[in-house]
Every structure is written in structure tokens, then in C-alpha cells.
Amino acid sequence: MFAASAFPRRSKWIAPPISSPALSAQWIVPLPLQSRACVAGDTGTALIAPFSGGSMLGLPGLRLPPAGFLLLLPFLLLLLPATPAPHRASYKPVIVVHGLFDSSYSFRHLLEYINETHPGTVVTVLDLFDGRESLRPLWEQVQGFREAVAPIMAKAPQGVHLICYSQGGLVCRALLSVMDEHNVDSFISLSSPQMGQYGDTDYLKWLFPTSMRSNLYRICYSPWGQEFSICNYWHDPHHDDLYLNASSFLALINGERDHPNATAWRKNFLRVGRLVLIGGPDDGVITPWQSSFFGFYDANETVLEMEEQLVYLRDSFGLKTLLARGAIVRCPMAGISHTAWHSNRTLYETCIEPWLS
Q1: Residue 350 DSSP code
Q2: N or C: which end of the chain has fewer CB within 10 A?
Q3: H or E element in which residue 207 lies
Q4: Which domain of life is it from (predicted)?
């Protein structure tokens, strides 16, 4: 209700001149300028139809409303529908999956960027398999992350976005393969070895200090080696047969080895709305760096691009189909080291933000 003081004294009825025929059919009523019912623009007025009744003030042909109505008018105006507030589109929830030896803390800058550019977005940085736990077998991690993302997806019928960094990109690709009813709109693969890893990195030297990339296959392609996540996507181009037979993870999600779930996994993967691939030549960890774009070495260590890979040519898990429907975005960027992908503002604005609808 409006208090009496809310109505300026100037807001009173004024009889129009007798000679004004234009106002013989309506009254112009000044309204309190602070009233929610002031809907006629800056003038603070509204048009009120005339009322029947006895002649007042001795003015022929003019009839003013009863005094009781004037007292009720401010309260009746409150019943008018308020102008609806402008609708602000909501953003799809974002799920972030970290990489090898990482934790949710590593993504604090990314979280800030999303909050600044897409305020109100629900962002979940999953805090699972942190630090050394990220060395657990990837299928074990996939199961854990699946249990974490399923409730988030269930609460977001409009879909979700996945941002998956480094090793986490392989975890997410496996999730898209095994989840029958996932609703991922954008799968953003951030510097992830999607076609495998074959390089002497600091991570590798720490884990296997006596091995070089040339002989690491002896460890990784053994049952014992496959108990380490990094061996699940170790891809030695000089021992392709061993890779195909021993890889318990990458060869399966790539569809390079026959298995009974291959058709279903391909169908599931193709539910994704968009695949965004991000990487660059100065990464320093992903080897070759083109693996972030599904490129990889041949037996002579010459990099073959995605379109030259057998998994693409055979469309074994859906890459060729995705590209044909325009659902693959490639965003290479130089000058970014591996640990800086998720904190580089320019990279975020160029390669990530446009796809967070």
C-alpha cells in the first residue's frame, strides 16, 4: 500500500476547459511518479475513462467520478500488472575435469573467468583422483567421474558443458562413450593427448626414472604397466601391434580393437553437440602436440593429421561423422605451456568462452 505522503499534493483532479472537445471522452490523471503503476512513460500519467453520474461544478456535459472512487484509485492502480522484468538467459552448467597430478585448485582462474563473462553459471570442478591418485587406472577414474557427473546432468535437462584438461580429456571422452543418456552440449578438450602420448616428459621421468620413451613399451604394454593411467594412453608408433593388443583403454575408446560395446559407444559419443579441440606447439608435454587434435606419429615419427588417421578414415568412434556435420572446432594457439592452458585469459576468451552457451 502507498502511504499518504507518497502522493504529491499536485496529483489531483482538474476539470478541463469547457471548450476542449478532445477531453470530453477521457480524463488525464496524474499518478504518483514513484508508483509501479506509472506505465505511460515519463509523464507519469495514465488515461482513465469517464464515469457517469450527476453534473458537478455546474459544467454542462461533464461528469466527474464520485469522491469515494478518488480515494480508492491509488489502491486500484496497485492491481494493474507490473511491467515484467527483462528475461536474462541462463547458461548451461559447466563441469571441469582435471589432469594428471592436478586438483580443483588449479582451475581457480578459469572459474573466475567464467563467473566474469557468464555470471550465474553453475560451475563444478570435480575434486576426484587428485595428485598421485590421478595415476589410478583410467577405467577406475571413469567410473568415479561418471558417478559424479550423472546427478549434475540429471538436474540440467537443457544440457551441460565439459571442460577437460590433459589426461582429463581422455576421461571425458570415455564418459561420452559409456554414458547412454549423456546430454553434453560442448566437450572442450583442453590440451589432451587424444591420440596418445609418446614423449620424454618430466612426468614420465619422475614415474619411470630408468626408462626412456624408446623402451617404455616394455613396462606400459604389460599387465602391471596398465595399472598406471599414463600407460593407458602410451602410444608407441614403433610397436603398434603391442599397443593394439595390450592397451586396455585408448585402443578401446578409439575403436582400434574390436569389442562388443563398440557400436553402442560410438552411438553415445555422437550424442555430443560439439567437440572443441585446443592445443599448441609450445605445450612442452603433449607429444606430439598434434595429439590434442587427433594427429599422431606414423612409424617414421612423421605426424599425420586427424584426417589421415585410420580411426578417422574408418570413422571408428565417430570423428568423421562429427566433422561432416560441422561439430568439430579446432583452436590451436602458440606460446602457451602445458600448465598455463587453464589460466590464460586470451586462450579462454578465444577458444572456450564462445562455446559456453
Answers
A1: I
A2: N
A3: helix 202-207
A4: Eukaryota
CA dist 169 and 188 (Å) reads 8
Give the mean pLDDT of the chain. 82
Q: Looking at the predicted structure, is the pLDDT value of residue 347 above 60?
A: yes
Average pLDDT of 105-120? Answer: 96
- Parallel, antiparallel, or unpaired for β 296-297 and 274-279? unpaired
C-alpha 101, offset from chain centre: 24
- Percent of the chain at pLDDT exceeding 90: 69
Asked whether the CA dihedral 343, 132, 145, 125 is positive or negative, the reply is negative
Strands (E), the chain: 27-30, 45-48, 94-97, 123-125, 160-165, 184-190, 274-279, 296-297, 303-304, 328-332
Q: How much is the pTM?
A: 0.75
177 is catalytic: no
Domains, the chain, ordered by start: 94-197+260-355 (3.40.50.1820)
Asked if pLDDT for residue 132 goes beyond 60, the answer is yes
Spatial contact of 290 and 305, defined as CB atoms under 8 Å apart:
yes
Stronger pLDDT, 44 or 289, i.e. the higher one: 289
Instruction: Extract the C-alpha cell encoding 86.
Output: 527483462
Structural contact between residues 97 and 164, judged by C-beta atoms closer than 8 angstroms: yes
Cβ–Cβ < 8 Å for 10, 30? yes
DSSP character at residue 65 = P
- Helix ranges, 228-328 (H): 229-232, 240-246, 250-253, 262-269, 310-313, 319-324
Judge whether 166 counts as a catalytic residue.
Answer: yes
Cα separation, 237 vs 306, in Å, equals 15
Catalytic residue, from 229, 283, 292, 316: name it: 283
Catalytic residue among 35, 106, 166, 192: 166
